[in-house]
Write a structure and sequence with these properties.
This protein is an alpha+beta fold and 589 residues long. 53% of the residues lie in helices and 17% in strands. The strands form four sheets. The chain has a six-stranded antiparallel sheet with strand order 7-6-11-10-9-8. 23% of the residues are buried. InterPro entries: HATPase_C_sf, HATPase_dom, His_kinase_dom, HisK_dim/P_dom, HisK_dim/P_sf, Sensor-like_sf, Sig_transdc_His_kin-like_C, Sig_transdc_His_kinase_DctB.
Length: 589
């Protein structure tokens, strides 16, 4: 019988609630156990800190008692106007202070004025200062031992003060006081990285392991306490501002971090020694213990569920096995038919690929024959004109020679030489086009190569009135000198052809490390032709003005030097040719 769905959901919710209650109980137990252990450790540390503090104070409290009956101090108290008696007392107190390590020893008369002091010869000397407002003075004058901690009224340095009643032979009353500093003790607390502090009865932090806590209060001072502290000037001029603390369940929160507080009373001055320990590790450990317990419970539950599900799965597998065998047999027959059909399709594809390769070979042969025919027609056309002119010119030269026109013969011969040079240039372009696949990487000075090219084309530049703007000298490009000259000659010749009949014609050259650029202000190149101008035998010029190999040669020479050629139309008119070389080493083939 199946369980209703609402009962299943109710059981799941009940189990989840019990699981969460169990985790809460585990977390609380872990927290309580850690808190008790941390409190025990803190109390042990506080006992160590208290012993060190009491030992530091007890080390100096008997020094005034040892000097209580010293005749030099009695004479200084009896004859305060005698400079010799005061001088002896000063030297005695200075010597004892240096030997014992006391911050200061000083003798005070019954009115509170300091008669002699160990620091009599220093800038912050106590001599002449009146300390009748200090509790240690009033308590000692009444006959009890005075103890007091506060900020020095003269030096501004905090210290612990002892006061002991003193009387001369003639009964003159006075107080012998000693001041010790506890700064070294506070410094010894810092390496432990514990938050240790001494709190007085007014909740003022008198000593602390961290400087920012010192002379702040754990709670705001009452008007009566602040008035009493001002009368004794115990912490003057400290502001005694309260710490920004949040209290919750016996825990403190300060500067964004929670702390537990352990405390130990100190008999002296009704002090309390506190140790603040961060509770974040306790939370982390409690979370970790709870997480481990929760994961273990979940893992055990999942294991039981897996075992149950596995049992059901095995039973279902047995039932499905027979059905699967039947389906496998039917599927095997279908796969056999599909395999036969696939083999037939593969055979058809192999035959189609063979036909495609045959057609590709035929197309390559056709393209080669077309290129060869185009090249032959271009060469025949280009060479035919200068040959015809050369034949006519030779006949004219012969006639001129027979008639004795020597000057005209010389001009005719020069014309014939130019025609021969034109034929040589046409054939040299064909040779260069055939040989541009060799590597042309090298080093060439741009200004030297340009000078050589202009020696060939300078007359043509002048005849057309073209203004040529040269780049700054000193640029070196990564090409062989001969290859660079061929590139410059073809680019400048193309620009001269394009600038024919253009007013204010200008060719601008610009170069830098790894790049060269040439642009003109001619009619430019149509956008649809930018990808075709570097193809062999493609030309936009009229018939008889070139083979269409110039830019193809430039592209091959640049690529052979591990660079690239970029051709673009300028927005203001004209064409722009850019040669770019990468900074990497040339590739090795």
């Amino acid at each position: 019988m199946n369980t209703p769905a609402w009962k299943k959901r109710l059981l799941w919710l009940l189990g989840l609630a019990l699981f969460l209650l169990l985790l809460a109980w585990i977390w609380h137990g872990s927290w309580q156990r850690q808190a008790v252990e941390q409190e025990l450790r803190a109390q042990q540390q506080l006992l160590v800190y208290r012993a060190a503090l009491e030992s530091e104070i007890a080390r100096f409290e008997n020094i005034p008692r040892a000097l209580r009956s010293h005749p030099v101090l009695s004479q200084a108290l009896q004859w305060p106007a005698d400079p010799h008696a005061i001088a002896r007392a000063n030297r005695l107190l200075a010597q004892l202070a240096a030997e014992t390590g006391v911050e200061a020893l000083y003798l005070i008369d019954a009115h509170g004025f300091t008669l002699a002091a160990s620091n009599w010869n220093r800038e912050y000397s106590f001599i002449g200062q009146n300390y009748r407002f200090r509790p240690y003075f009033t308590d000692a004058l009444k006959g009890s031992v005075g103890e007091f901690y506060g900020v020095g009224a003269t030096t501004g340095i905090p210290g612990y003060f002892f006061g002991l009643h003193l009387a001369s032979v003639d009964g003159t009353q006075g107080v012998l006081a000693a001041k010790i500093t506890l700064l070294e003790l506070e410094r010894s607390w810092q390496p432990a990285r514990d938050l240790v502090m001494v709190v007085d009865a007014d909740q003022v932090i008198a000593l602390a392991s961290r400087a920012e806590l010192k002379f702040q209060t754990l709670s705001p001072l009452s008007d009566e306490a602040r008035s009493r502290l001002e009368r004794s000037r115990q912490y003057t001029p400290m502001p005694l501002t309260p710490l920004a603390l949040e209290r919750r369940d016996g825990q403190l929160r300060w500067q964004g971090q929670g702390y537990g507080v352990s405390e130990l009373p100190l008999p002296r001055l009704r002090w309390r020694l506190q140790l603040w320990w961060p509770n974040r590790p306790l939370y982390h450990t409690a979370h970790l213990v709870t997480a481990v317990a929760g994961i273990s419970i979940v893992a055990l539950t999942l294991l039981l569920l897996y075992w149950r599900q596995r049992r059901r799965y095995v039973q279902a597998q047995i039932r499905a096995k027979g059905e699967l065998e039947r389906k496998v047999m039917a599927r095997t027959a279908a796969l056999a038919a599909s395999n036969h059909q696939l083999e037939r399709q593969v055979q058809e594809r192999i035959q189609a690929e063979a036909r495609l390769r045959s057609m590709q070979h035929e197309l390559i042969q056709v393209n080669r024959l077309a290129a060869l025919g185009q090249m032959a027609a271009s060469v025949a056309h280009e060479v035919n004109q200068p040959l015809t002119a050369l034949k006519n010119q030779s006949v004219n030269t012969l006639l001129l020679a027979q008639r004795g026109h020597t000057d005209q013969v010389e001009q005719s011969l020069q014309t014939m030489g130019r025609l021969v040079d034109r034929i040589a240039r046409l054939t040299s372009q064909l040779k260069l086009f055939a040989a541009t696949r060799r590597k042309t990487r090298g080093q060439a000075r741009l200004d030297e190569a340009l000078d050589n090219v202009l020696s060939w084309l300078g007359a043509r530049v002048g005849e057309q009135g073209v203004r040529l703007q040269r780049p700054a000298p000193g640029t070196v490009l990564p090409m062989e000198p001969h290859a660079l000259e061929q590139v410059l000659a073809n680019l400048i010749s193309n620009s001269l052809d394009a600038l024919a009949g253009t007013a204010d014609a200008t060719i601008t050259l610009e170069a830098g490390a790894g790049h060269f650029c040439l642009w003109d202000n001619g009619p430019g190149i149509a956008p649809e032709l930018l990808d075709k101008v570097t193809e062999p035998f493609f030309s936009t010029k009229q018939a008889g003005q070139g083979l269409g190999l110039g830019l193809a040669i430039v592209r091959d020479l640049v690529e052979a030097s591990d660079g690239r050629l970029e051709i673009a139309a300028r927005p203001g008119g004209g064409a722009r040719f850019t040669l770019i070389w990468s900074e990497d080493e040339p590739s090795r083939n």
